[in-house]
């Protein structure tokens, strides 16, 4: 028991050290913890999480090319139009849009792009912005858990691949649960705090000119290009195909091996479909090579992969500590947030 406590303390210390530097620092700190556990305590190292990393790389590649084609900007434009139609319902509509678009895209990049829009529309409708904003942030995180192409779901599929758990099996649990959680959360914050019309602090700021109203009709909405529409349709088709292939084993090819008949695994099928989808988007939309790896999603995603490599390798090593942790990267415009889910 004491040995477990010491090893667990080492893991937490390394996470704390890496957290101070963020990004690549988390991966490097994971390597330090693994070195201490293996060389210092003789803990046998587990195999690197190659399958999880490969899946995340394939998904990041697809989303990065979608971004280069304008698909993520299209998501933001659609979100603005939806939110502008019913500004009075922003407390429910804002989280719903953040949830839906994050679940479709598999990245929090879209959600972070629409947060300012949600805040402005709420203020113009005289609804306390923190009501919609607080639940929109939570709903976006829920959307990642309910997305068939997010790193958390794909990583879970990789970990549970030997148990024949499909993407549909996971989504049948996460989607209803997260939708119910979002609804309950929205009801909880619906009347949270004073209305802006009766809030003395808000009225003071309006009187002193500190608050500048932005009318819904005055917002400039980006022009939706045909290229972005094509990219988005191809991407959604790829997501649907991933779910179908992961849920219907008979659709995946089989081979005769020395161990018998072997069917293509779900993680392998997911990687192939995501890379194929990315290639189709790239060719159909004729994306410039200079744009393929210049987007924020690609850069932040690679940094996240480094963190995943070091930390998950450290945490999955050791029979005594049994620190199996699956985690996901929530892509942000300039950085990423690492969140952990322990089974």
Describe the structure.
This protein has helices at residues 2-21, 24-41, 50-68, 71-85, 90-105, 109-124, 129-145, 151-159, 167-189, 200-207, 226-247, 266-284, 289-292, 296-316; strands at residues 254-257, 260-263, 325-331, 336-342. With 343 residues, the chain is mainly alpha-helical. The strands form 2 sheets. It has a two-stranded antiparallel ribbon. A two-stranded antiparallel sheet has the order 3-4. A hairpin with a 4-residue loop joins strand 3 and strand 4 (336-342). The longest helix is centred in the middle third of the chain and has 23 residues, at 167-189. The radius of gyration is 22 Å and the shape is globular. Residues 214-221 and 319-343 have low confidence and may be disordered.
SSE order and pairing:
Blueprint: H1 2-21, H2 24-41, H3 50-68, H4 71-85, H5 90-105, H6 109-124, H7 129-145, H8 151-159, H9 167-189, H10 200-207, H11 226-247, E1 254-257, E2 260-263, H12 266-284, H13 289-292, H14 296-316, E3 325-331, E4 336-342
Antiparallel strand pairs: 1-2, 3-4
Structural class: mainly alpha
Work out the helix count: 14
Question: How many DSSP-defined strands?
Answer: 4
Order of helices and strands: HHHHHHHHHHHEEHHHEE
The overall pLDDT average reads 79
Which percent bin holds the helix content?
55-70%
User: Unreliable stretches, pLDDT < 50, 5 or more residues?
Assistant: 214-221, 319-343
For the terminal residues, how far apart are their CA atoms? 20 Å
How are the strands ordered across the major sheet? 1-2
What gyration radius follows from the Cα positions, in whole Å?
A: 22 Å
